[in-house]
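Dear Dr. L.,

I hope this message finds you well. Following up on our conversation about the binding site, I have prepared a predicted three-dimensional model of the protein together with S-adenosylmethionine. For your records, I am including the exact sequence and ligand specification that went into the calculation, followed by the structure tokens. Please feel free to forward this to your student if that is useful.
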Amino acid sequence: MIAVNDEAVEPGGPGVTRRQVSDAQTRMASRGWWDRDADAYQAEHGAFLGDVDFVWCPEGLREADARLLGDVRGRRVLELGCGAAAAGRWLAREGARVVALDLSAGMLRHAVAAADRSGVRVPLVQADALTLPFPDAAFDTVCTAFGAVPFVSDSAAVMREVFRVLRPGGRWVFSVTHPMRWIFLDDPGEGGLVAVHSYFDRRPYVEHDAHGVPTYVEQHRTLGDRIREIVGAGFVLRDLIEPEWPEGHEQIWGQWSPLRGRLFPGTAIFVADKPNDDA
Ligand SMILES: C[S@@+](CC[C@H](N)C(=O)[O-])C[C@H]1O[C@@H](n2cnc3c(N)ncnc32)[C@H](O)[C@@H]1O
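The resulting structure of the complex is given below.
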């Protein structure tokens, strides 16, 4: 989030606002953005993410250490908003039966390239997390690191869709930008230490082109909102992890920096279970 106008789209040039946009505009913006940005995203973050590795967040927490998904051997796992699917390939190497899904063909092209480089292949599906092309109870585990959830206008609907495709007893783990980050500017330096936005302003962050058409939309939910969406879908929330910035980790990722990371959380990781039928 950079400095934003409140509502108004200034005529004559690209800009940034906080304002409501429709579902259709959000989907179009996301698809276009991630297709256009795929090469730049991978150029900037590909080395940090690896080709076969599961990194939950810019703080560098790895599934190999955190084990939030439990033992995945033999499990049917869906990676949502997979991008280049490094996490999906790591899970496959751990013995999981993985499907990796993303809205963006541009991101999935990087998944194909990384599969060629690493020799680890998982089935790739281009689809929207809001309408998953899978039958009920098709998976034991669903996960995503910063995929899909922050980029849909109805994240409660994603929770319900994930609930549907999980078997009873299945696990859902997702990471997002920590909600408290939304009160600050997207600045990894001193400028990102001053509260300027209301935590309670749920209007999305919208970048738009010269015609006012949204080109990037990211959604804010408070911690309470996220918990209500998870529980409202039927899940039991097991944990909320706020990874601390590790000593000696100096890598900046956008607004995530050692300066800010030492003071307040940048990532929230939600761990939820679909209850067993007999629960
Ligand atoms: C910040 S990237 C994260 C990618 C990957 N998980 C990682 O850790 O690098 C967000 C991803 O979510 C995908 N995405 C956005 N909206 C989506 C939607 N509605 N359904 C599925 N994927 C979506 C984007 O295409 C993009 O690949």
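In brief: Helices lie at 23-49, 63-66, 86-93, 105-118, 155-165, 223-232, 258-261.

With kind regards,
A. P.
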